[in-house]
Amino acid sequence: MKQKYVLIDCDPGHDDVMAILSTIAHPDIFHILGITTVCGNNLVPLITENILNVLHYIHREDIPVCMGAENPLVYPPSPQAAHGYNGLEGFEFPKHSLKTVQQDVISFMKEKILSSPEPVTIMALAPLTNIATLLQKEPTIIDHIEQIVVMGGSWYRGNVIPHAEFNIYADPHAAKEVFSGKVSTVIIPLECCDDCTISEATVQSWIHDERYLTKMVGGIMDFFAIYGRQHQRTRHTIFDLAVTEYLLHPEIFEGEYCNCDVILLGEETRGQTVFTTNPNSKILVLKHADTNRFEQQIISDINLLANEII
Ligand code: RIB
Ligand code: CA
Questions:
Q1: Distance between CA atoms of 206 and 213, rounded to whole angstroms?
Q2: Alpha-carbon torsion 294, 287, 221, 97, what sign?
């Protein structure tokens, strides 16, 4: 597979970390230009500290991190309890002295995209505030973007309010801009993520694996699985990991080209995505994934990294 130059926009976040680890496991496929953070699961200073902790723990201080938007475009921040008190509960990271790149996030993204030898893929694992602002302020940047792959939205239901998924609910104005159809975009909504699960047995295997990396992965996944266990689930959805896995193996996903509108208002509808079939659209909305291949890929990626990182 041709190497992909990627920017990861995220709010780590347990599933964000799994997506990032899986990306790092494939240096032959992914050249990571940088990681940007955005207000989402928790306030941006906290979730930025989470990614610095992870990168320090896995000895990848070379990957530049730039702190992004502290607030959504219009609404106030909406931190989520599901990720714990600091946005990445479950593992106590050792102290570090890593720093973020001291640059405005939009100029950081622009610089990374324009200096890339190939058009860039943006992996969007969080509310779309940074990306929408980039597209608004630098409209010609779209010529240098290969595609944006977004975990967000839903066909029929919600996970924070009845009709909206969190990443779009948190900043619907940003989503409306990004989904306006100017850039090739892949949307991975909640219903596709229903197929992007790992078993409780996999989580337990990481918890009981004493290798350096799996101590961390087991800790954060043990915490992330609490919600599912409380709801008698034996499988756990690793939402953002679907973005990495789509880029690795698009053939295990299926979807349909659509236009996407975003509802901006309403107690039950703020952030609702409305998909309308249009074969000429630049937006591919996914519907299903092969669960078995999804799970086998992350098991293999974590095993590979666990043998490398000590
Ligand atoms: O709705 C799922 C999204 O919100 C994911 O990006 C996950 O990290 C969560 O906070
Ligand atoms: Ca996320």
A1: 9
A2: positive
Instruction: State the distance from the centre of ligand 1 to the C-alpha of 271, rounded, in angstroms.
Output: 13
Q: What is the mean pLDDT of residues 50-62?
A: 98
CATH superfamily membership of 4-308: Ribonucleoside hydrolase-like (3.90.245.10)
Kindly state the average pLDDT of the residues 182-194. 98
Q: Is the CB of 240 under 6 A from ligand 1?
A: yes
Asked whether 151 lines ligand 1 (CB < 6 A), one says yes
40 CA: nearest ligand 1 atom: 10
Q: Point out the ligand 1 atom lying closest to the alpha carbon of residue 13.
A: 8
From the list 26, 236, 249, 288, the catalytic residue is 236
State yes or no: is 26 an active-site residue. no
φ and ψ of 247, to 5 deg: -65, -35
Number of neighbours of residue 290 by Cβ within 10 angstroms: 17
CA distances from 218 to 69, 89, 213 (A): 30, 12, 8
What do you get for the CA distance between the two ends of the chain, in Å? 28
Domain residue ranges of the chain, discontinuous segments joined by +: 4-308
Contact between 193 and 157 under an 8 Å Cβ cutoff? The reply is no
pLDDT in the model for residue 57 = 98
Give percent of the chain above pLDDT 90: 98
Q: Which of 8, 16, 169 is the best mutation target for the ligand 1 pocket, counting ligand atoms within 8 Å of the beta carbon and taking the most?
A: 16
Pairing relationship of beta strands 253-262 and 273-277 according to DSSP bridges: antiparallel
Backbone phi and psi for residue 253, each to the nearest 5 degrees, phi listed first: -115, 155
